[in-house]
Amino acid sequence: MGGVAVAVLLAGALAACAGEEPLTTPDGSPISTVTTRVAEVNIVNADRDLTRTCLAPTAPDAGQTDVARIAVTDPGLLDPICALGIGPKVVAVTSDAGSIPTYLGPQLGSVPTIGTSPDPATAGEADPDVVLTTDRSAASAEAFADARVVTIPTDGDWQAQFQAVADALGRSESGTRLLEEFRTETRKTGRRMDAAHNQVSLVRFTGDSEMIAGTDSFAGQILSMVGVQRPEPQRSPRSSTVTDQNFTDADADLIYVSFVGDEGQAHGEDVLLSDRWLDMGAPTWKRVLSVDDDIWYRSSGLAAAWLVLNDLKGSLDGNS
């Protein structure tokens, strides 16, 4: 064997022995790697490109003066703005640092967060034309004394909230069009993937329990729009806790699992590798997939809905 070949083999062997060492570029910079599996389960869209979360920019309705600068008092209102494609117009969020959902990507992740009780001077620097608020965060809007304040209702579903934001920003027609485009795509996806003949389970792991997500959960609503069926024990609107007595209620043709934080992942890995879990049908058939809990459950809006739908498109017929 030639010297070069021996050197290559030796380098490979040394790299294998040093598995704990981070990968680096020739100049020593660390190389980030994407984790694609957890507890022997494939992660759906592990390499998701968050720069593409927000949709194309929309224009105001005919005759409407376009808003130039937007402040919001509730980070949950950022998703509709992202879906309307006007994230660059957001100049301030009255929330604490780190409260902007990561899935919204860099367009909104870089917006200044000025605290839940901003002082008038800081609010004045933002100088918004309109402030979007909710009944639960209305107090934060008081600092913006000269801006138009619009309260977005929170008692409806995510589609109603999206339309309310679109109305408030002079984009009623765009809001209606974008929602209908999404509904049309869910129906097409359902037919294309024969969703009516798939029973899908939704399981969330917390630090010390497993939850079966109800049909009223965000992911549950998207599955219903696509036409995906749920196992009979999972057809309640409310989520339920998995116990020793109903453990197999988590089974289905396909199980989507997610983890609530690091503690949820640690507990979930223990369960996913347990004999009791592996003896169920879907794990036996390697039909368990991991999804992003923040997007599937802890978000709510059209931008996140597209992410969940695209996850389904790429995984309903997938395997662990």
From TrEMBL:
Species the sequence originates in: Gordonia aquimaris
UniProt subcellular location: Cell envelope
Keywords of the record: Signal, Transport
Domain Fe/B12 periplasmic-binding residue range list: 69-320
GO cellular component: outer membrane-bounded periplasmic space
Protein name: ABC transporter substrate-binding protein
SUPFAM superfamilies xrefs: Helical backbone' metal receptor (SSF53807)
GO BP annotations listed: iron coordination entity transport
Signal peptide region: 1-18
Pfam families reported for this sequence: Peripla_BP_2
Family affiliation: Belongs to the bacterial solute-binding protein 8 family.
InterPro entries attached to this UniProt entry: ABC_transptr_periplasmic_BD, Bact_iron-sidero_bind
Record keyword Transport present: yes
